[in-house]
Amino acid sequence: MKLKTFETEVTRLADSGVRLTVANVAARLRLSSAKTEAWLDELAKAGKLDLEIDEDHGVIVYTVRGLVPRRMPRADVHPGTELRIAQMEADLERAPQNPRALSPLGPPRRQKSVIVAFLAAAFLPGIGLFYAAPLTSALLASIACILLMKLAVIPFVGWAIGGGVALASGVAGALYASAFNRTGQRTEIVGRLTGRKQLPGR
To answer: Is the pLDDT of residue 132 over 80?
Structure first.
């Protein structure tokens, strides 16, 4: 950074309400304190900055001659606090502008009830999977369950087939709801069970 650029940045900081102390300017412009102080003194000698001593905090405060800032600087902040605020603001300015990154918790994630998923899928085999499963998987499972339930009319073994299909559908529904709660979206569980990586469902 050259002195002319430094002068422009200092004027911008002053206009935004930043108290022009060595610590504040150095933190925001990512310069060493020695270089910052030398350039501030040079601008003061050139008549572009005025300076005064803050006796309460024991620091020199510079002001841009002739500038009426849009925001007035806060004179009641301790220099150590000012430095931390300056460093935080500088980090924010250089951070990627990702709205979710500004919130450590992020938006609340939707949840699916595992119990409701189990009961819906058990009492409505296949169809109940639409509650939490990927739509394609739920559709295929519904077709498969309808075909298998046709075998429930077979004497002696029909009840076992029907019960097994209902139980398997209920367990699948619970697993799909659990996967949804972990990922926040409809997620395929076949890959997790078989060890293969699957893309999230729609």
So the answer is: yes
Among 54, 82, 102, residue at a domain's last position: 102
Distances (CA, A) of 189 to 113, 138, 176, 181: 17, 12, 7, 13
Residue 136 domain boundaries? 114-194
Q: Distance between CA atoms of 185 and 165, rounded to whole angstroms?
A: 25
Please write the tens of the pLDDT for every residue from 75-127.
544 555 555 655 666 666 665 555 544 444 555 667 889 999 899 888 888 88
Question: Within this chain, do residues 150 and 88 fall inside the same structural domain, yes or no?
Answer: no
Say if residue 57 is exposed, middle or buried (CB neighbours under 10 Å; 0-12, 13-18, 19+). middle
Question: Of 52, 69, 102, which marks where a domain is finished?
Answer: 102
pLDDT tier for residue 69 given thresholds of 50, 70 and 90: low
Mean pLDDT score of the chain, rounded to an integer? 77
Reported for 90-93, long-range contacts at CB under 8 A and 24+ positions apart, including other chains, are: 90/27, 90/28, 90/30
0.90 surpassed by pTM: no
